[in-house]
């Protein structure tokens, strides 16, 4: 069945939100760009692959604390396997890169495995903890988005989006969703 498709729009929306928590009360989180827009993609320009990887986007994440604190982060959004839902069928993944705490490179651990080093990938339900305490954390957030090819089979222009929020949490805080 052939569908005449003029174009399909894609937008990834990341909303910044700070969670309540004992360790996070004296800290503030911000991102350089709370909305990442992939723009309009014309189906005619695409070859028929099984899935489509949209270009990697990057935003800057900053955490500023009034006093040295243990900084733990999670991203909450609708889970889709090892990533977060993008539209009905797609997925986006988030990875923290080039992280610095008070000017020093950050080593990440998972809250439930504090002795092991983590890669910096934010997975659904996972809390990443920066080893050590500090007042200022900065990291580049890489956003990788994939869609199955049939997600582009629509009659008119359609907006696909993924939503979620970064949360500062106490490293011991349970997942609230």
Automatic annotation (TrEMBL):
Q: What are the UniProt keywords, alphabetically?
A: Signal
Judging by the UniProt lineage, the source's domain of life is: Bacteria
Q: Which residues form the signal peptide?
A: 1-24
State the protein's name.
Answer: DUF1120 domain-containing protein
Q: What is the lineage of its organism?
A: Bacteria, Pseudomonadati, Pseudomonadota, Gammaproteobacteria, Pseudomonadales
């Amino acid at each position: 069945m052939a569908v005449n498709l003029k174009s399909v729009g894609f937008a990834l929306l990341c909303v910044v939100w700070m969670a309540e928590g004992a360790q996070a009360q004296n800290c503030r989180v911000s991102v350089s760009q709370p909305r990442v827009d992939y723009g309009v993609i014309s189906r005619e320009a695409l070859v028929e692959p099984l899935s489509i990887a949209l270009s990697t986007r990057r935003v800057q994440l900053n955490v500023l604390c009034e006093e040295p604190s243990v900084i733990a982060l999670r991203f909450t959004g609708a889970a889709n396997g090892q990533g977060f839902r993008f539209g009905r069928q797609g997925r986006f993944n988030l990875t923290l890169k080039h992280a610095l705490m008070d000017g020093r490179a950050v080593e990440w651990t998972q809250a439930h495995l504090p002795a092991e080093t983590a890669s910096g990938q934010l997975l659904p339900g996972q809390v990443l903890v920066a080893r050590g305490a500090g007042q200022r954390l900065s990291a580049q957030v890489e956003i990788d988005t994939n869609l199955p090819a049939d997600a582009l089979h629509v009659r008119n222009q359609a907006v696909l989006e993924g939503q979620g929020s970064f949360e500062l949490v106490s490293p011991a805080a349970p997942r609230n969703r």
